[in-house]
Amino acid sequence: MRAIEASSYKTYGWRDGDQSHGPSFQFEDPFGHVFELYWNTVKYKAPPEEKAALKNIHQRYHGRGCCPRRLDHLNLLSSNVTEFRDFMITCFGSRVTEQIQLDNGRLGGCWFTINNKSYDLACTEERGGGTGRFHHITYATDQREDILRAADIFLENGVHIETGPHKHAIQGTFFLYVWDPSGTRVELANSGARLIMKPDWETITWTENERKKGQAWGLKTIETFHTHGTPPIS
Ligand SMILES: [Fe+2]
Question: In the CATH scheme, what architecture does the domain 70-227 have?
């Protein structure tokens, strides 16, 4: 928090907590995304009907719908990914595990971690003309097979499948992207056992030419992926 206060980024100071956590310290990146840090958290206690069979699981397993296991990461949009990268390093002490270097000298995207996951936040370049926008939220599934099943569930329920299932070249996650009814992009992903264990991890940089080859198995990145964000631009 001292590092944030000592920086030039906009801060809003302490806010009262909400239902899930105690007081939080709020601040903003140069693009209008508001972040908050908190310490005191309200731990989930499952009501009797939701209690898991084993004590080391917070809620019983239902295996319904896409049955994601947990939140995995967020992807935000910004008009200057290099500036966003500086913000993440200054305010979160974040490591950059992978990034895209465009031919024009700009960064096309950056993947950040503050733990041993290969990333928990990504930022890609805003090409839709918006500011402070959101690209997607991602839920992790236990297995790749869950994602194939989810694709059929989305299809049967009229949910817009934007792209996938396929495997990302960057970070290697198996993925599927859909839009919820409000237009918010939601990803289901399975990263297998990829973890960042090396303390001296060196950022992997992808060139524009490498990115043009598409995703891991050749699927071209769909155009809306570069332009669709939320909220929509009016
Ligand atoms: Fe993602």
Answer: Roll (3.10)
